[in-house]
Amino acid sequence: MAFEGLSDRLQEVFKKLRGKGKISEEDVKLAMREVRLALLEADVNYKVTKSFVAAVSERAVGQEVLQSVTPGQQVVKIVYDEMTQLMGGSETKLTMSSKPPTVFMTVGLQGAGKTTTAAKLSRNLLKQGRRPLLVAADVYRPAAIKQLQVLGEQVGVPVFSMGQSNPVDIARASLEYARSNNRDIVIIDTAGRLHVNEELMAELLQIQKTVNPHETLLVVDAMTGQDAVNVAEAFNDQLSITGVILTKLDGDTRGGAALSVKAVTGCPIKLVGMGEKMDALETFYPERMASRILGMGDILSLVEKAQENFDEQKAREMEQKIRKQEFTLEDFLEQMQQVKSMGPLQDLLGMIPGMDKQLKGIEGQIDEKEILHVEAIIRSMTPEERRNPAILNGSRKKRIARGSGAKVQEVNRLVKQFEESRKVMKQFADMGGKKGKRGAFP
Ligand code: GDP
Known about the structure:
The chain has helices at 4-18, 25-41, 46-60, 63-66, 71-86, 114-127, 144-155, 167-180, 198-211, 226-239, 256-265, 286-293, 299-309, 312-323, 329-341, 345-350, 355-362, 368-379, 383-387, 394-404, 408-434, and strands at 102-107, 132-137, 159-160, 185-190, 215-221, 243-247, 269-273, 281-283. It has 442 residues and is of the alpha/beta class.
């Protein structure tokens, strides 16, 4: 999981602080020394770390903090505020032109995820009711045009291409095409190189001058840490980028890039790539990111994800069933599939405050393979058995085990788990009812 090391280290530091009723200036100093080390180890830029720690220290040793009733909490709050500021304060929207077409240009080094990101972005815009056009202007990397065409088809966005022609000509022609074909956003996927070099910059500058984009979006790979920040600096010097898209944040990245990019370049991170799939491009929320890094969870993102994936009507029906104790194994399976469609469970649980820590202990239980296994067992049951597991006798269980490649004990365990979760759900639903609110599911 991203930022795991940093998150662990910081939480250790704060646990010590929180445990104290009173803290001294010396305690703060000690804690800040550890924060500094944790940040450097997470590959955060040296200067950024230094000024961050200085800013936190200055605020934390103030009398109102040290003499407050909850000094430890106050220090954590200061770190949270400063970290949010460091990453840009609040989210930054993409600029849309009032006179279509709006033009975006994605730039970056090879392998950063530019082509994938261009397609993901077009998908998100399409979902928002826009009419995007993808433009294949990466004419050097073998198969880049084909890659964009395949992704475009996958997300249902047309791709403008002119084969290996001059990229500047392609970009110019794509705008005309967009105007005459009623496309309101043009996303130009430009060529990358292995390293920043003059030839690349000259070409990108020329395209930029020709199409005058509303956004020049630099795509960088979060996994490359400080290198990503250096690349951002170099691109920004030449091209005045308007925003950064940080990819591969779903990976095991240490956090250096996310925490340093804004401070070093002055350019905000606008979007983040959270996976290889086309739906894995999200708005970057500095406050939520800070909250995740500090182990305070990311409930807002979780709720949004849930809203995107859950069907309100279905949720209400489900709640009714739970309340009336009519919740069946079939519903259980459906819920599991909905949760699965929200993405890897590890990521979801990481968004819940306090869960990050507990996760390690229950890793075995949230194995995605296990879900498939459970799914197979439920699918081997007859509709009647799914509705009423009480009828499952020995021979039925044997049949189900055989059908799903499981052991009879596993079938037993599943039925038991289901009965227990049905009980818990009922309690939750009742609690929600008493407070006059909707139940807890989902
Ligand atoms: P380009 O050379 O910059 O156009 O890079 P590509 O778009 O071809 O991406 C390079 C690789 O990174 C591909 O395998 C992508 O699937 C992968 N990739 C891109 N974005 C993400 C992301 O957010 N998360 C993960 N895990 N992989 C990504």
